[in-house]
Amino acid sequence: NAGVTQTPKFQVLKTGQSMTLQCAQDMNHNSMYWYRQDPGMGLRLIYYSASEGTTDKGEVPNGYNVSRLNKREFSLRLESAAPSQTSVYFCASSSPGTYNEQFFGPGTRLTVL
Amino acid sequence: LAKTTQPISMDSYEGQEVNITCSHNNIATNDYITWYQQFPSQGPRFIIQGYKTKVTNEVASLFIPADRKSSTLSLPRVSLSDTAVYYCLVGGQGTGGFKTIFGAGTRLFVKA
User: Fold this and answer.
1) A102: closest CA among B74, B57, B82, B34?
2) I want to staple A112 with a disulfide (CB 3.0 to 4.6 A). Which of A8, A81, A100, B58 is the partner?
3) Residue A57 and residue B66: Cα distance in Å, rounded?
4) What is the pLDDT of residues A5-21, one digit of tens each?
5) A100/B87 CB distance under 8 A
6) Contact A48 B97 (CB under 8 A)
């Protein structure tokens, strides 16, 4: 099992460009999450999806949209990237019936110039 | 959502036991307490989770007092490879799903 995979690993964007970060999990987890982590800081929840077909805002949703494409995949879209969105983005998933036991992907390092 | 407070950093030596305490005064009845470990350039990794009293697994113990307003992660006999950031989270299933808050974490530095 690959666990949680994220693509791309690195990305550089110019201000105003758009892009989609992809995340997939093969653990049959119901819930999936997107976080961002700024240098020296903890993770902040952007959006989460409790189950297929549902999404909800986390702490810092502004400037982002998400799509829970199916049970395996949860994508994060930046419609018009800003330098403030320069960060490392982590996707995670968790199994039903447990609280906060999340499995994380390797992260996407995004730089917006 | 319950907010957590942890020490910013801690130093230890190899072979010592390390205890990291987390305060969560506003923990809700259905919240669990979870600890994660994060190495540089990697995603966090689950260490241990508990609701009350004591939980132990192969890598750590988690002590939770009766009022659940704090918790202590105990790492027995740390090694250099335990140098990492440790996060305490409280959270549970709110309406429609899970919500979690990662604080700034505790940077543990283990010295030889």
Assistant:
1) B34
2) A81
3) 32
4) 999 999 999 999 999 99
5) no
6) yes
